[in-house]
């Protein structure tokens, strides 16, 4: 039995949340109350993020891509972990509640991602409209994930491989419960501690590569 890697994007591949950074840069005043409501759990991530992108004129698409590519830092060691996964024949999936239009350009600098699961944005109107491309399947207990990471894993993991989950926040918690190996940073570390999940904390992708080399030798 092999492994697959399920790696979050925002706050995991990147060192800060790309959506929040984009909102603060392009629509700071209008987005702030919505971000507060999401963080306070007053509205769902799906509803909040839909409302956030609806603030952004589609004419700003290229400016946002430029900003994402040039201003959003990627965590140290990402290419080296991709190289390790490829050498070990471990599929590397990016599973994100973010948007393809800014994730894919950031990832284009790196080699070895097997597939990116994220959301599309309809740019045909004056303002951005998020298409939630990966809803909950029937087996999901939440039915309110926005982007349902466990459903994506069920769809992709045909061979019942052990799943290596890498993430930073509560949007990774359902996937974390299904992980054979769990790597956490930030809020997901607190969650894993509180729920007695076995986990390895990380700061850089080098930490993960070193640990995986130990596990796999
Ligand atoms: Mg994240
Ligand atoms: Zn779900």
TrEMBL record:
The keyword Amino-acid biosynthesis applies. Pathway: Amino-acid biosynthesis; L-methionine biosynthesis via salvage pathway; L-methionine from S-methyl-5-thio-alpha-D-ribose 1-phosphate: step 4/6. Dephosphorylates 2-hydroxy-3-keto-5-methylthiopentenyl-1-phosphate (HK-MTPenyl-1-P) yielding 1,2-dihydroxy-3-keto-5-methylthiopentene (DHK-MTPene). Its EC number is 3.1.3.87. Keywords: Amino-acid biosynthesis, Hydrolase, Methionine biosynthesis. Belongs to the HAD-like hydrolase superfamily. MtnX family. It catalyses: 2-hydroxy-5-methylsulfanyl-3-oxopent-1-enyl phosphate + H2O = 1,2-dihydroxy-5-(methylsulfanyl)pent-1-en-3-one + phosphate. This is 2-hydroxy-3-keto-5-methylthiopentenyl-1-phosphate phosphatase. The keyword Amino-acid biosynthesis applies.
